[in-house]
Amino acid sequence: MRIVHISDCYPPRLGGIETQVRALAVRQAAAGHDVHVITATPGETIRNGTEILDGVTVHRTTFKLPADLPVHPRVTSVIGDLLKPGGAAADADAVHVHGGVVSPFAYPGMRVARKLGLPTVLTIHGVWGGVFQPTARLTEGLLKWAQWGVVLSAVSDAAADPMRSVVGAGVPVSLMPNGIDVDHWRVQPVAGDPNETRLIAVMRLAPRKRAMALVQMAHGASRMLPSGRRLRLTIVGSGPITAQVQRYVAKHGLTAGRFVVDLPGRLAPDQVKAALAASDAFVAPAKLESFGIAALEARTAGLPVLAYASTGIRTFVHHEVEGLLARDDRQMVDNICRIASDVALREAITAHNRSTEPAQSWPHVLETAEALYAEAAQQTARP
């Protein structure tokens, strides 16, 4: 099968969408498919042209802008030249478009694919809530895409629900989750002090991820623990509010005592695995999380996950099964206290996570993608 992915961003740019698109493309190529990627992201040595990376044919078509924004003034023509008969990515059996809240390269590419009569799947990787949902209603973008015969999907229920509210019950929005290498993220747990509960978070220290809120919530929870119990919070990552978090830790003396905060900075993947192995539970404090790949990695490693029920994490974490879900910050504080003091509950969730493979394993994700491609082919064959 010839599969063509269209994505604004792709490695060497690092981020959630591009990392997952690359991982999907590489695994599809390893499964024997002829896989192409069309992107507006320049490569290490190529700005405009074709290269083969990890078995995937990558077509880069860029326009020089500040910060290499994925905007091209001739986006429809450059993508059309690649997809139309005789083009380098012609005769696609499936065109898989990957979009966020705003995707100035991918969304026009989707229209080009449908005008050429190619089976097309759209996966939304972001949450179209808040101010973005009225925008989608205003432009009727989703309705038009559905009318064109595009198969709609999203990485989680949190990302799919706003789409469903726009297109209505008559248009299905499927789940096309991000994938995870289960064997890679399995870890051998490292025992710690039985009187200390070790929480970990892996995130970019940016306001949207709510690292400061996490420290404050954990600090409050530590004061509610039974006598003799201690709490340690490790936040892996760096970003624009690192100094703010450091100042809070210093001001409140959180380097020793009943509540300790460790800030190791950004770690390599193997170091993250080691940090997960030496932890008892994972906390995801962001409320605007379309999927939560770091939380899925922790859940696969066996850790109970504490997160918000409004996020995409609820797709793979169910309350009191893979972790604890909170409605608001007050309940998150309660859940931190609960996971720290209820050893039986924590051990039961840990045992479940270590013994049960998540549905987001790559074999399942590849099957899901092929099912969506088959559905798109059926849509294209209809009058």
Automatic annotation (TrEMBL):
Residues annotated as domain Glycosyl transferase family: 195-351
Pfam families per record: Glyco_transf_4, Glycos_transf_1
InterPro entries reported in the protein's UniProt record: Glyco_trans_1, Glyco_trans_4-like_N, Glycosyltransferase_grp1
Residues spanning the signal sequence: none
Sorted UniProt keywords: Glycosyltransferase, Transferase
EC numbers on record: 2.4.-.-
GO MF annotation list: glycosyltransferase activity
Domain Glycosyltransferase subfamily 4-like N-terminal: 15-183
Protein name in UniProt: Glycosyltransferase family 4 protein
